[in-house]
Amino acid sequence: SVIRKTPRVGKNIHEVRNPFRARRRIAKTFARLSNFVLNCAVPQSNISVPSRQPSSHDACDLSVVIVSWNVAGLLRDCLDALFSPEVSAGLRMEVIVVDNASSDDSAQVAAAFESVRVVRNCRNIGYGSANNIGFKLARGNYLLVLNPDTVALPGSLEALVAFAERHTSAGIVAPRLLNPDGSIQRSAFRFPTLMMAFLDLFPLSRVVPGRLRNWISHSTINGRYPGEPTKTQPYRIDHPLGAAMLLRREAIENVGGFDERLFMYSEEVDLAMRLRQVGWERWQVPAARVIHLGGQSTKQMPDRMLRELWRSRLYIYEKHHDPVSGIFLHTLIITAQVKESIVTRLGAALGTMPIKEANLRLRRARSLFRLALDMKR
Question: Above 50 in pLDDT, residue 48?
Fold first, then answer.
């Protein structure tokens, strides 16, 4: 057999994307014939995770659920990493890939791995709904939500499971995320506040000293954990970035799966808020490390994804906050888009902004303006 080496932290993106590839035509042919594939899965609304304990003959430690959409190459690298001995050793693991009607060969790439179960949706049903399908099929004591643009590093999964075993009150256990160059990617956050939304919509001006701007952007004011890059011991957080997080089956049975009214973004925020309400803790374990490229699916539809980002944030406020806070957020978005339109038109008129860029910014401003007005009604 071919032993695939896990990429060393610090390599560039091109090196990370091709760390585990090996030729295995015979295995691929066998996999296509024997792989368990569900065609055209139809999700139910408000899916809850079935409450059952896997029987002794089919129990496993960990069920990895990956939702893919047009990221075939990245998905292959992600799966190669998962099945490498350095990552999966010591774990009874299953992998479920739910493909949201990709137009590339993402589903075929997943099916080439003989031990992967593949669900092929007839349409893109959204991130949360697709994960819920995977949860229903999962047999593991723990569920690992994993994006296809990730590469798990040696010992990462074992560290997550081991921590969860020791801390039975932990509903979510997240790894430390790394950029492709090995630098730390911020992935531990506090729950959303109006100040965080304000800083997103009205970025600090260049007249503010750079050191002060940097301090604010990485402070609790902006929802960050200031000591995150230097922490070496596990610590409690409000919620992780959803690219990689271990979920305790009991906790998910307690609150249900992802909210399927969210198509994209904020699913992990909503889930963490519901877990907090019933007493489950959320942790980050720095010793577990996963490389995350970020935004590889969403960048294929930037305009729609920007709208979905703010739609999900508005929904979170309407669901978890008081009505007054929701009205403030609507008002902030509307005000920011009016300001953006004025600045953009002025820049285009003075010739300081290219017409193409101005049209793009105006189109996005109109989209978010209408979104805030529509949801307010």
Answer: no
* The two three-digit tokens of residue 35, written as one number: 């792989």
Percent composition of the chain: helix, strand, coil (DSSP 3-state, to 5)? 45, 20, 35
Q: What does the alpha-carbon distance between residue 173 and residue 194 come to, in Å, rounded to a whole number?
A: 26
With bands split at pLDDT 50, 70 and 90, how would you rate the model's confidence at 210?
A: confident
Structure tokens at 191: 């729950």
Please state whether 185 falls in left (phi above 0), alpha (psi between -120 and 50) or beta: beta
Q: Is the dihedral of CA 317, 318, 320, 323 positive or negative?
A: positive
**Widest Cα–Cα separation across the chain:** 72
Q: What is the DSSP secondary-structure string of 277-304?
A: HTT-EEEEEEEEEEEE---TTGGGSHHH
CA 288, chain centre distance (Å): 16
Helix 323-350 / helix 355-376 crossing angle, nearest 10 deg: 160
Residue-wise pLDDT tens digits, 171-206: 999 999 999 999 999 999 999 999 999 999 999 887
Dig out the tokens for 89 from the structure: 């050793």
Are 134 and 50 a contacting pair, CB within 8 Å?
A: no
**Residues 143, 137: contact at Cβ < 8 Å?**
no
66 three-class SS: strand
* Tokens matching residue 15: 């090196």
Query: Is the pTM of the predicted complex or chain greater than 0.90?
Result: no
Burial code of 13-46, b = ≥16 C-beta within 10 A, e = fewer? eeebbebbeeeeeeebeebeeebeeeeebebeee
CA-wise closest residue to 7 among 150, 109, 111, 143: 150
At 110-137, the pLDDT tens digits run 999 989 999 999 999 999 999 999 999 9
Burial 215-228 (b: 16+ CB within 10 A, else e): ebebeeebbbbeeb
